[in-house]
Specification:
Number of helices: 5
Distance between the termini: 32 Å
Order of helices and strands: HHHHH
Number of strands: 0
Helix content: 55-70%
Shape: globular
Structural class: mainly alpha
Largest sheet: none
């Protein structure tokens, strides 16, 4: 029972991290019609993680994403990428 609760809490945590992206990129990265934000649902987890790390390090410029990415640990960025990345 405790294992199930821990697993549920872990999944909720992971989904919660990924849900922070939905405000701009839409639910599950499917985008918002005419929202002007890049669609991310066509990217693999590795591609998303690469972009998130580039924003965090400053290698990729942006308006909001560099600020957001710097607020997450590398582990959290990996979790977000794994949650949102296109499953192959």
């Amino acid at each position: 029972m405790a294992f199930a609760q821990n697993n549920d809490a872990s999944n909720l945590y992971k989904r919660g991290l990924a849900a922070t992206c939905a405000n701009c990129h839409g639910t599950n990265g499917k985008g918002v019609v005419d929202g002007g934000m890049p669609l991310i649902n066509n990217l693999t987890s590795e591609q998303i993680l690469s972009q998130l790390k580039a924003f965090k390090s400053g290698a990729r410029e942006g308006t909001i994403m560099p600020q957001l990415a710097k607020g997450y640990s590398d582990e959290q960025l990996e979790t977000i990428a794994n949650q949102l990345g296109k499953k192959q």
